[in-house]
Amino acid sequence: MHRKWPALAVLLALAAAPAPARAGEDEWELGVDGFGALFRTGATQWGGGAGIHASYGLTAAWSVVAAASWRVVAAKTDAMGTFYPARHLAGGFVGAAFALDVMRIVPFLQAGVGAYVVAGGGEVHVAPSAEVALSFDYVLTRSLYVGIDLVRARFLLLEGALATGFEAGLRASYVLW
Question: Rounded to two decimals, what is the model's pTM?
Fold first, then answer.
């Protein structure tokens, strides 16, 4: 029975061991994202989407990020009978990310600004946006990691009113050099 404890201690130490550095200085990262999404203007519409992202490490903690994505949300009629058409949202953002790179699980925050084309119900609008995200990556190797966007909040100015979008999803990234 006592022989199992040293093995368990070694296993826990390996799981918590520092990983190779994630987004380091002067490194480029490319990745893909898939997510569930909700979009709220007057009613909450559900959907999903996909995207790509890139970042450049300024320091071991700070990166410049850029992303492009597309999502679709389903049509909905609310309790008052107001119809909200299905909408496609496509666009991107640029911003900064701060990573706390100390273990295999790397939490990071992103913030940025962008613009989205919102199409639905025969109308097309361009909406400026601001967004923030809390994400976690798991470092598989020095160059490959997978993660989760725990929450990504997007605020769009659409037809003079504030529209909000929230997403959660999975991500995979590869460090080029």
Answer: 0.81
